[in-house]
Amino acid sequence: MHFKLVLSKLLTVFEKENIRYALMGGFALGAWGVPRTTADIDFLVNRDDMDKVDAIMKGLGYECRHKTENVSQYVSPLRVFGEVDFIHAFRIPSLSMLQRVETKNMFDETLPVKVLKVEDLIGFKMQAAANDESRKAVDMADIESLIDFNKAEIDWSLIEEYFSLFGFGKQFDVLRRKYSK
Fold first, then answer.
1. Ramachandran angles phi, psi of 23, nearest 5°
2. Which element (helix H / strand E) includes 26?
3. Main-chain dihedrals φ then ψ at residue 110, nearest 5 degrees
4. What is the pLDDT of residues 33-63, one digit of tens each?
5. CB–CB of 23/32 below 8 Å?
6. Which stretches does DSSP call E strand in 11-122?
7. Cα–Cα distance measured from residue 102 to residue 66, given in angstroms and rounded to the nearest whole number
8. pLDDT computed for residue 181 by the predictor
9. What is the tens place of the pLDDT at every residue in 104-143?
10. Of 51, 64, 112, 129, which has the highest C-beta tally within 10 A?
11. Residue 124 and residue 117: Cα distance in Å, rounded?
């Protein structure tokens, strides 16, 4: 997948169509100083914009492989365009995340991208760890890296909410002691 090409194409149309979005997932970690290998691009998008997103993706040659109330997955028959996944924001916590996005300049400062805040990326990582035990070690490593690299600006109260929501209160206490010095 050619990440810069795909993001450039998508973001140009997202801005034109006023799509409320934020980059998330493994690729978004790099925007916060924690580069990680990933095979796709993940977005959080306001569910009310998903009809427009569907038209955009199909117009770019993507096929919708999977769609539920919560997620949509698009895959291009051309390897260079790869896979793009969308989490649909419609509950209060995810809509709040979209209101807190930050613009980060990626690809040597050449492409401005709206990205979830560190704390909200951590929230999704917590959800993934809670939903799939096999992901827990990788997600917790990502969380620690995000906190370590961004510890000066971390909103610990928001992170605590996410850890508590998914039953990881003890792990939160350990991380807080370790990184809030």
1. -70, 140
2. helix 25-31
3. -100, -15
4. 998 888 899 999 999 999 999 999 999 999 9
5. no
6. 21-24, 40-46, 63-67, 71-75, 83-89, 102-106, 111-115
7. 28
8. 67
9. 999 888 899 999 999 999 999 999 989 898 989 999 999 9
10. 129
11. 11
Count other Cβ atoms within 10 Å, centred on residue 6: 20
CA–CA distance, 91 with 31 (Å, rounded to integer): 25
Residue 98 banded pLDDT, cuts 50, 70, 90: very high
Q: Which residues are within 8 A (CB) of 79 and not within 5 positions of it... i.e. 6 or more apart?
A: 1
Chain centre distance of CA 181: 27
Closest CA to 122 of 83, 168, 89: 168
Question: Among 94, 89, 93, 57, which Cα is nearest to 73's?
Answer: 57
Residue with tokens 């810069």: 4
